[in-house]
Amino acid sequence: MPPEFTWTIAAAAIAVGALVSGPLRIAARIPLRRFGGLNAARRWARASAMGFVLGTGLAILWLGTAFDPITANIAAVMGLLVPLALTDAGWRWLPLSWTLGVGAIAIAFAAQNDAIVTAALTAVGTAATLLGLKFAVETLFGRDGMGTGDVILATSLAPITGPWGIAVCLGLASLTGLTDEVLWRRGKRAELRQRYGVAFGTHIIGVFSLLWLFKAF
Asked: Cα–Cα distances in Å, from 157 out to 10, 47, 179, 181, 185?
C-alpha cells in the first residue's frame, strides 16, 4: 500500500470514529427540525446521521485516491466541523470527541509534512494562552468570555492555521459574534440569546472555513 494512501485511510478512520462516537443524531435533528418540522426530525435523524458518516468516509477515501492526502485531510476536517457548527448553533455545545478528532487530523496532516513538532508546540501554546486569558477574564470581570469547548476547538485548529492564523480567526470570529449579538438583541429572541449566549464556536468554524477556502493558511 502506498504511504500516501495510508494517510488517507488514517484520516478517514479518525473522522468516522469521531463522528460515530459523538451525538450525530442530535446534530442531524437541528436542520431537519428547522426546515422540516418536528416529525421530520424524529423520522429522519438516524438515517441522516448514518448517511453523513458513510458519505464522509467514502468522500475522504475517494478524494485521497483521486487527488492527494491533503485533499482527503481537508474533507476529514470539514466532515467534523459541519456537525460541530450545528450542535454549537443549536445547543451551544462542542462535543469533545469531534473537536479532538479535528486536532488528531491536524496533527496527522502536520506529520505528513514533517512539521509535527511545530504543530504540537502551536497547539500547546494556543491552549496555554487561551486558558490564561479565560482565567484572567473570569478573575477580573467575573464573566466567562470564552467557553472551554471554544478553547479546545481553537487549539485543535491551531496546527493547521499556525499561531498567527488562529489569532486572526479568533479576532474575526469575535467581530462576527458581536455583530450577531447586536442583531439578536434587536430581534424577538433576545431573551433566548441572553440565556444561552453567543455560539462563538460556530463563528470560529465559519471564519476558519472561509479563510481556509481562500488558502489563507
From this structure: 18, 29, 23, 24, 30
Q: Exposed/middle/buried for 115, CB within 10 Å: 0-12, 13-18, 19+?
A: middle
Q: Which of 75, 107, 102, 88 is nearest to 23 (CA)?
A: 88
Show Cβ contacts of residue 216 under 8 Å, excluding neighbours closer than 6 positions.
165, 168
Distance CA 34, CA 59 (A): 26
Exposure on the CB side of residue 180, measured as CA atoms within 13 A: 18
Model confidence pLDDT, tens digit, residues 170-214: 999 999 988 877 776 555 555 545 456 788 999 999 999 999 988
User: Which string of b and e fits 53-79 if b means at least 16 CB within 10 Å?
Assistant: beebbebbbebbeeeebbbbbbbbbbb
Q: How many CB atoms lie within 10 A of CB 210?
A: 12
